[in-house]
Design a protein that fits this description.
The chain is built from 14 helices and 10 strands. It has helices at about 5-40, 90-95, 115-130, 150-160, 175-180, 200-215, 230-250, 265-275, 290-300, 330-335, 345-360, 365-385, 405-410, 420-425, and strands at about 85-90, 100-105, 140-145, 165-170, 185-190, 220-225, 255-260, 280-285, 340-345, 390-395. The radius of gyration is 37 Å and the shape is elongated. The termini are far apart.
Amino acid sequence: MDSRPRLYLTAAFLCGVLLTLGFKDFYPDLERRFRRRRVPVDTVAGAGLATSDQIDLEDHTRSTGPEKVHHVEFPEGIEACVGNTPLFRIKSLSVETGCEVLAKAEFLNGAGGSPKDRVALKMIKTAEEQGLLTPHSGDTIYEGTVGSTGISLATVCRARGYLAHICMPSDQAAEKSDLLLKLGAVVDRVLPAPIIDPMHFVNRARSLAADHTADPERPGRGYFADQFENQANWQAHYEGTGPEIFRQCGGKLDAFVAGAGTGGTIAGVARFLKPKLPDLRVVLADPQGSGLFNRIKNGVMFDALEREGTRRRSQVDTIVEGIGINRLTANFEAGRELIDDAIKVTDEEAIAMARWLAEKDGIFAGSSSAVNCVAAARLARQMGPGNRIVTILCDSGTRHLSKFWARAGNIGGRTDSRLDDILGPRPEQ
């Protein structure tokens, strides 16, 4: 029998095996070429990766070399927390008046929690530059104040190596003198008296400073800060508060409203803003019993509550603390010609506004802040919608618990207060 067919079958079988093994390696590549030609933009999850591309995952979470160390400079001391306070929109007053009522949150100054931080720091630095104070030498700073300046001085004094001796009227809120004692200040609470009385709190501080300096047995010198007449007061606001407001408003504001005790805030801010914004209205917010309202409106220092036989309090007849005065100071005079108008605010209006701010905005304001907001809201109504008005929130209500807020009472669950109840009916258009 011929063996060639069997040989052919064997050869064909071996060729089939070889072809199968070869095509096994060749077919995937052929299939990839075929698919790529038919679908050239086939991608994975929209990421722009072709299905034939190999995806390699790499771990970039671990550093392959030494990390770069950047040099960081930290602010020096609590003094670095003074200034650059926020400017924010008081929502309730803005909605009610149609104006943009903005508040400079001076209660957020980081030393004593009021605009007096700026003043205390400026007065001390100026005295150091003039050689009148030397840190850690036993020098003591004396000041007459109703509270806020004393608290700021006590804080900054400790930070810069001085002692503080504060004289204040005995009718101020007790929590202020308590805080001063906690800060290590010596506190003299003196009876309220006219400025001509040697025992007036300002005169008392001046006298004690002179006695300290003259006493050879006492270390250091006595320095009388003299916030009412010290030009560093308004300069602190000219250099700080005014430029901050201008920058935060983008150079656009229509009115600035503030009260005056020493007068440094309104004078310093007005002196900075007025040359840049000639049409700006600067308006004084003045509590009852103060004579500054009449000084601006009529050119004389007199208030009806101050006439003989009617005054109930020796300095200014109001529950408000920190603003209002019946004499002219160097700081107020520095900006008086730039003040366009004045608005008188009663104790009842201030209390009602403090309650309004807590009820509507969650702002727990002190008495002078409430006066400022009454005046700002009243001015907003006068000027009409669309104007931007800036005022000052000086300090927190926590410094007024035993006096102002004791009279204001608790807010409770009330939510129905009306601005008309504070300012009176809207003027007819």
